[in-house]
């Protein structure tokens, strides 16, 4: 599952990634390349910032939904098996379901 989004620096156009969970209104971080501080706001005038915010929001939604599913599965499995035999089910990978 994708939990990071691409951000394009306003100044040097370098593309880097950051966690979708961090990219919310009021968040700021330095560009790793030119070290300018980028401020993240959904109402930003910067198209790069706005795009990153949109991507982050979508990624957070997907994460939330996938976490909800896996939490239910883990809870059910640990209740039934005591959480000890999880390794035996590793053969059935379901990571290929991404679109
Ligand atoms: Zn930069």
TrEMBL record:
Pfam families: OapC. Residues 59-99 are annotated as: Disordered. Residues 76-90 have a biased composition (Low complexity). This is Zn-ribbon containing protein.
């Amino acid at each position: 599952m994708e939990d990071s989004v691409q951000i394009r620096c306003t100044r040097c156009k370098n593309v880097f990634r950051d966690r979708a969970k961090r990219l919310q209104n009021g968040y700021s971080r330095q560009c790793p390349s030119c070290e300018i501080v980028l401020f993240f706001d959904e109402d930003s005038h910067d198209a790069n910032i706005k795009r990153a915010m949109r991507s982050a929001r979508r990624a957070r939604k997907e994460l939330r939904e996938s976490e909800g599913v896996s939490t239910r599965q883990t809870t059910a499995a640990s209740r039934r098996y005591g959480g000890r035999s999880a390794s035996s089910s590793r053969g059935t990978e379901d990571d290929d379901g991404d679109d």
